[in-house]
Amino acid sequence: MATATNITIKDEMTPPNQAGDVLLEKTSADDPEKRSVDKSVDVDELLGKELESIKLTNSSNESTKSKVPATPPNPYFEFRQLPDRGISIFAKASIPRGALITAERPLMRVTKAHYMAEHVEEAVERLPADDKKKFWSLASAHGQDRSKYPSRIHPDVAEHEKNRIRQQHAARTSSSPTALSIFMTNAMECENGAAVFETAARFNHSCIPNAFFSWNTIKHEERIYASRAIEADEEITLSYCDPFYEFSQRQWELQHYGFVCVCPACVNLDDVESFGAESRERRFRLAELDEGTSYPGTFADVLRGKIEMAKLMREEGLSGTCLGDNYLSIARLVANAQSPDFNFAHKAATQALDVYTTCLGADSEKAIEAAKSVRAFEKQMKK
């Protein structure tokens, strides 16, 4: 990836003031109460000299990064080199909505949800020579400014997680690419762990993507579908972020990949008539509704909230599991109401099925589940 779920693998360094446990704290030299703490922080000690223990690439690996690899045979896309974004994937012909753009098995895989640097290095070392060369040719978000990240780990974090955070931070700020930095930049969630895919890793990010990726648990492969119609010569993009994140949250998460997003949802925010300004309002409202409809409330309030969420996601150009799950939730909500409306439930479930089939494939678990709901509501309508 530019170089990830829907990242793929979420980093353990969450931004301050974000929902959830704050794993790291960033001290400020402008805060008199924290100034003495800042002076006592030894970054090398914090990292535990992880830079010395994480394996670096050799010069031959660096040389492969400037070359555009051969595009695998396919009817839809080709690799292209962009001057400011590296290797990207573009449509070489029109791609219809719901088309399967690519499906592939992992190039390498780590079957641990909370992987460490040594797990990644061992997996890379086991690769055949050709696959190892492919892995080292992928993008690496190393060389980042360590001052942009929190400098202290929260004392309540378990020691194992502290070590993992230190390793990730060391790989991200190292002067050379490492197995871990490449893995973190390109890995996608894959059942109990994460995996790197040679082609899928080349898709760049957009907060309003035109394609959707997911791991198919039946075929055991990563699939990427066109979530809307894509024109010839249009870049094919995926989203590495939670779709309900606000602008600042998205930029925080994306900086871990070493870039600043400049998609239409992230620019011209001060222009009230721009898409970016409208997007910021929609995402704020989506996050608000997502939290509000997750807690018990009146039937009418929850239903109105979920219907509004579907409308906002459509306006924003968001699809995938977030939209499909919302439609299916609406269907079940009205079907289980005190006075059930199976006609309404059937329409909502049909919408969910359409989204799942388009973005995940008809043989995905979610599409199969939605199809069962559609049939069940049809039976109820006939009674």
What do you see in this structure?
The chain has 383 residues and is an alpha+beta fold. Among the domains are: 76-106 and 202-239, Beta-clip-like (Beta Complex); 107-196, no CATH class; 275-382, Serine Threonine Protein Phosphatase 5, Tetratricopeptide repeat (Alpha Horseshoe), CATH 1.25.40. Helices cover 42% and strands 12% of the residues. Strands 4-11-10 form a three-stranded antiparallel β-sheet. Strands 5-8-7 form a three-stranded antiparallel β-sheet. α7 (159-173) packs across α8 and α10 (275-292) runs antiparallel to α11 (299-316). The longest helix is centred in the last third of the chain and has 19 residues, at 342-360. The radius of gyration is 22 Å and the shape is globular. The termini are far apart. Mean pLDDT is 84; it is low at 2-65.
